[in-house]
Amino acid sequence: MKRIALLFAAMAVCLSASAQGDYITRTGVVEENGTLRLVEPRSTIAVDITVERTEVIVGPYARFAQKYLGMRAPLSDKDTYRIAGASIRLLADNEYVASAELPASTEVVAPQSGDVREFARLLPDRMDSRALTTDQAAAEAAEAIFSLRKHRIELITGEAGENVFGAGLAAALKEIDAYENAYLELFFGRRIVSTQTVRLTVMPSSDKFGYILARFSEKDGLIPASDLSGEIVILQIEPSGDTSLRYLHEAGPKDKQTIDCRLADFSTCILSCGTTPVVRTVLPLFEYGRDVKIVR
User: Fold this and answer.
1) Whose CB has fewer CB within 10 Å in the chain, the N or C terminal residue?
2) How far apart (Å, rounded) are the C-alpha atoms in residues 263 and 43?
3) Quick count: other Cβ atoms within 10 Å of Cβ 295?
4) Phi-psi group of 70: left, alpha or beta (phi > 0 → left; psi -120 to 50 → alpha; rest → beta)
5) What is the pTM of this model?
6) Which residue in 41, 49, 47, 52 sits closest to 14, CA to CA?
7) Is the peptide bond before 111 cis (omega within 30 degrees of 0)?
8) Phi, psi (5° rounding) for residue 6?
9) What is the pLDDT of residue 121?
10) Which helix (H) or strand (E) holds 295?
11) Most confident of 83-87, 176-180, 249-253
12) Alpha carbons 38 and 26: distance in angstroms, whole number
């Protein structure tokens, strides 16, 4: 009786492959609520890949940064991509692929002021209509940066007067920081970092152990698998070969009352970009398991 109770308890929770790690399920013709249906165990693997994009936008005074500020600045716009993270899991039978929630896309601008992809045409404190060369405008911007830093120190040390304190001091320092960032952007530009998570799905086959999902390029990010300009993004599956029956009794030749079941193989799933592993996990996959008969 105890063995029969264990059997039906296992069957109740293991009727399908799910993200909860089930390793056994019914196969063949199954009767449920008076209705017969054909059960063929299938696994659906969801691979979620988070790609990070770094966009560098050059400042209009970039070539004068070394001259007036003593630091080199980027001299050309540039986009680079990297795989920031990934996860591998099983989708439940009732979980529609497109409806599963993915992490929200993000964008961070550093430093941030005004429109993230346009720089001010005029210097923040320009009050006259003098015609300046780019070199002269850069020199004035650099002087403004040093002046703002001097005023910041004077405020912090109290040299600017005793009437600036508390919330007023914090507000003044915040305003100075905003002005300094606006000037610095004219030299060093902006760096925009954004992330996006993409879901790719695989329905494995018992005779296939490698699945090319896409390709990846540092210049273009995730690209179609047919685009040979990038490194392959591949999911490799390594079955363990261990499909031993746990807790239940496998039927022998003389057993008459049996139930047809499929045991999953706890397979190692490895996502790689080129030759570099990104993430690995172990999942119970029915496609690499074996069929067994359980004593009813």
Assistant:
1) N
2) 12
3) 16
4) left
5) 0.71
6) 41
7) yes
8) -65, -40
9) 45
10) strand 276-295
11) 83-87
12) 10
